[in-house]
Model the fold of this input.
Amino acid sequence: MKFWTVQKRNVIEFVMKNGDYQPDFSKSDYLQIQPNLKDLYNMVLESFNEVNGINLPGVIFSFMDCDYEKIYQIENIETFYTFIQNKQSAIESMWKKLSKQDVVIVELNYEERFNPIFVDINDFQLLMPPIMLFPPYEEQDLKRICMDINNGQISRSVFPSGIIQAHLPYIKSENIVNTYSLFDLE
Done:
């Protein structure tokens, strides 16, 4: 299955030199800067490990497409570019933060089967501290989103973005299809 992620250039260089990269949340520079996200990231990690019957120290965050009924692979960089541009309102603030770093877009393919713990990007952002409910979200939606993540399932979001966040166990050199420069949102 095909996934798209944005990674620091040095992570991809590490994969190409050493064959694989296993993220470790306990050593994450990002979580050192954003310690308020540790609980959320750990919930995703614990759920990923439980659902997949493994014990990893971290996961990769990636993107997929969704039409609110089904989740789809994004087939090529042109489609990914159009996808991100069309979903700009849901991803703009994150994309701007990424553009300030030395990162690349990575096209990945995984033959192995695992549950990537899909979650709508708006639902994930709702869980980011400080949690603030705003319409159309209600308290029950918080509980549903957490339960879905814990059970490795996805429900239709009450505020769908069309961007699905998927989680990956690692990046191996054979998973990398290609890398691309990060582009600006128009």
Remarks:
- Strands lie at 2-8, 20-21, 60-66, 71-72, 103-109, 119-120, 163-168, 171-172, 176-181.
